[in-house]
Amino acid sequence: MTILDFPNTGFAGHVAIDRRGVAAVALHDELWRITRTDGEVLGYVERSTTPAGHRFVAKRMLQRQRRFLPIGEFWTMDDALDCFRF
Does the structure show a pLDDT above 70 at 27? Predict the structure, then answer.
């Protein structure tokens, strides 16, 4: 289990979302770190812009393999967060 404990850096919008047992911490405008409420890192959500609008790509962190596994591409941040609950 990886738990990251960073002091609040004053980044605007530091904690973006905290719901349903997961929290999303904004690292910058296009990237959020997804954690459990106890601090365990689950993965990341990256936003990209397409001609049809914003897309949110969810990536699960596989700690033992030291890589990320794309688990879905979604039209809303809520949908991307939902896949981390399971």
Answer: yes
Q: Who contacts 5 (Cβ-Cβ below 8 Å, separation ≥6)? A: 39
Q: For position 65, what pLDDT does the model report? A: 81
Q: How many residues does the chain have?
A: 86
The beta-carbon contacts of 49-58 under 8 Å, at least 24 apart in sequence, are 56/80, 58/34, 58/83, 58/84
What are the residue ranges spanned by the domains of the chain? Answer: 27-85
Task: For residue 77, give the H/E element and its range.
Answer: helix 77-82
User: Are residues 22 and 36 in contact, defined by beta-carbon separation less than 8 angstroms?
Assistant: yes
Contacts of 70 (CB under 8 A, 6+ apart): 57, 58, 59
List pLDDT tens digits, range 44-55.
999 999 899 999
pLDDT for 64 equals 82
